[in-house]
Amino acid sequence: MLPYAPSSVAVARQYLSSDLQEWGVCETAIDDAVLVVSELLSNALRHAHPLPSGQIKVAWQCTDGHVEVAVSDGGSATEPRAGRAALSSLGGRGLGIVEYLAENWGVRHDGDITTVWALVTILAPLGDDRTSLPEPALRECI
Question: Can you tell me the distance from the alpha carbon of 76 to that of 98, in angstroms, rounded to the nearest whole number?
Fold first, then answer.
């Protein structure tokens, strides 16, 4: 759980980047996953309510050559969807970026909690002898 505050974006990026580096994920995949979590978290902070605790949940799970990043919040009046921002727009590109970088993304609802998730392909660095990535692992920002 993280505070429902813009400063949480940098915290989540750092935790995710550290975990993926520790797990031996290649730098370009780390960059993609970190950008995706940034966009999901920024959108939640901009458009949704905090969880009942007043916080926001950010988690990721590494399995089968992918990392699933997920941001859970208290929901909003509208459903998250990728839009097509005008060239002159200052915003509105977040889920479009997620859609481009992620293999898949979606929204889950559990009562008043909304979770937006994205599945990003991760690979071991070129020249690495490993045939697989780390054992399935789940992390949550604390």
Answer: 19
